[in-house]
Design a protein that fits this description.
By secondary structure, this protein is mainly alpha-helical. The chain has two domains: 80 residues, no CATH class; 183 residues, MetI-like (MetI-like fold, Orthogonal Bundle), CATH 1.10.3720.10. Helices cover 79% and strands 0% of the residues. It is built from 15 helices and no strands. Helix 6 runs parallel beside helix 10, helix 10 crosses helix 12 and helix 12 packs parallel to helix 13. The longest helix is centred in the C-terminal third of the chain and has 39 residues. The relative contact order is 0.15.
Length: 329
Amino acid sequence: MSLAKFLLRRTLQGLLVIWGVVTVTFGIRVVAPGDPVAVILGPGASETLQEQVREDLGLNEPLYVQYVDYLQGLVVGDLGYSYQSRREVEIMVVERVPATLELALAATVVAIVIAIPLGVVSATRRNEPADYGATTFSLVGISTPNFWLGIMLILLFAVQWGIFPSSGRSVGLGEAVVSLVTTGHANDLLAWARHIVLPAITLGTFFTALITRLTRSGMVDELGKPYVTAAEAKGLPGVLIRYKHVLKNTMIPIVTVLGLQLGTLIGGAVITEEVFNWPGLGSRLISSIRSDDWPLTQGILIFIAVSFVLINIVVDTIYAALNPQVTAE
């Protein structure tokens, strides 16, 4: 199978997944308790006004008509209007994307910086205290709930020691970089870094543990291959062998997991954003659910699904380009 056909097949599969997400979220809205008209008008509205709003929103139409209308709107990028704010849903989603992407990318950086060196040390010092420590860290990291870890970090580093802020986001990364370039002062950038440290650690802990274990297992497999023995026989330094040759051959599955997990981090940031009051998609999703704002809830869920599918397609395509056996299979 050629790369173009592989990409076409992955794209069609992604569209099928997105359609499934849209259908499920629409079905949940239909069966969920509560009346959208009551959310919009509040208590005490007259029957005439309620019927008028239902007609304006198309809620008096059969379900299949509402479903088709919603799909048609999605095709042209129309996600509807928020019940609470009366604003376009696509605008409310897009304006929160930068904060969520910043958090997801920061968590990825935390995971890479900690996990890869830790996995290399664990693989090269098997059955030693360093290996046991890294394995224990991985087990604890995978087993620790994000919300509990976030609360503990707030209590320790924000409340007890006052090192980092406990919540919020004073300035966006883009604004901080622009301020640094135009004024030459890094105050905004430092403020952004102080606010994102605790959320990034909270969100990236599970990811760190996963990459540590993946790096260790890949390194262990590579260290037993003949080319490592040949490099050692030539007298190459151990650090050079481990990081230039062995780690390089281990990076393909790690890069694949990094790409796939980025989509998971975008969707999984909901709890972390709520704990730290981070102004991203997650906190807005929780707010929309609490207020029965279904157009906004659907819009955020669909955006997360589309992001996850696109990231998967890009990662699969890159992996297929690097490893032609994938397209052959």
